């Protein structure tokens, strides 16, 4: 995985996209896609201009992690395929959903205890024996890549929930439990289906 450090470089210098555009002539669209890491490709000339502008070399412009991650949608979860060199690891994250209409124990609940949720939703690594393998990979990721993995699982979990509730139009307040790296990230989100 490869990401640009453009957003960090600009923040460290108190610059905005418009400032970099004025100084380099690189289009604002290109700069925004690089800063947000949404770019599918970038020209060498663009990288050369940016490295020159910031007074850095290419290794300071990019952050690299030796993993390629692909997500495969499943009805009841996600498979995260992580490739590094010739090694391929598939990690299955299972989706769970509990309605507040069900008889819930305190162990079933998470999120803000002051809120009443319509649904408690979890996506967790399915095979406990896989935690060690996943931990090794996850802990070797740069913090930005760790955040990206968690955000992608969160987004895909919301998609699974929406797909399963298309016939029930409305707004739902949901608490999400994303199990990554033996840690659970609790979030809450109001979802319109």
From TrEMBL:
PROSITE patterns cross-referenced by the UniProt entry: HTH_CROC1
Family annotation (Gene3D superfamilies): lambda repressor-like DNA-binding domains
A UniProt-annotated Pfam family: HTH_26
Superkingdom assignment: Bacteria
Domain HTH cro/C1-type: 6-61
Molecular functions per Gene Ontology: DNA binding
Entry-linked InterPro entries: Cro/C1-type_HTH, Lambda_DNA-bd_dom_sf
Protein name per Swiss-Prot or TrEMBL: Transcriptional regulator
Organism of derivation: Ligilactobacillus murinus
């Amino acid at each position: 995985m490869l990401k640009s450090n453009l957003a960090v470089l600009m923040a460290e210098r108190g610059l905005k996209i418009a400032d970099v555009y004025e100084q380099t002539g690189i289009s604002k669209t290109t700069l925004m896609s690089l800063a947000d890491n949404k770019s599918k490709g970038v020209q060498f000339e663009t990288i050369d201009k940016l490295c020159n502008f910031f007074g850095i070399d290419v290794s300071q412009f990019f952050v690299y992690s030796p993993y390629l991650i692909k997500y495969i949608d499943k009805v009841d979860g996600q498979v995260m395929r992580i490739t590094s060199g010739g090694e391929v690891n598939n990690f299955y994250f299972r989706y769970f959903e509990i309605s507040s209409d069900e008889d819930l124990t305190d162990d079933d609940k998470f999120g803000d205890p002051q809120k009443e949720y319509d649904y408690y939703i979890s996506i967790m690594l399915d095979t406990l024996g896989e935690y060690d393998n996943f931990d090794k990979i996850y802990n070797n990721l740069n913090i930005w890549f760790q955040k990206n993995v968690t955000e992608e699982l969160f987004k895909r979990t919301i998609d699974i929930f929406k797909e399963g509730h298309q016939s029930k139009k409305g707004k739902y307040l949901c608490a999400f439990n994303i199990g990554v790296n033996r840690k659970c990230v609790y979030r809450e989100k109001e979802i319109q289906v």
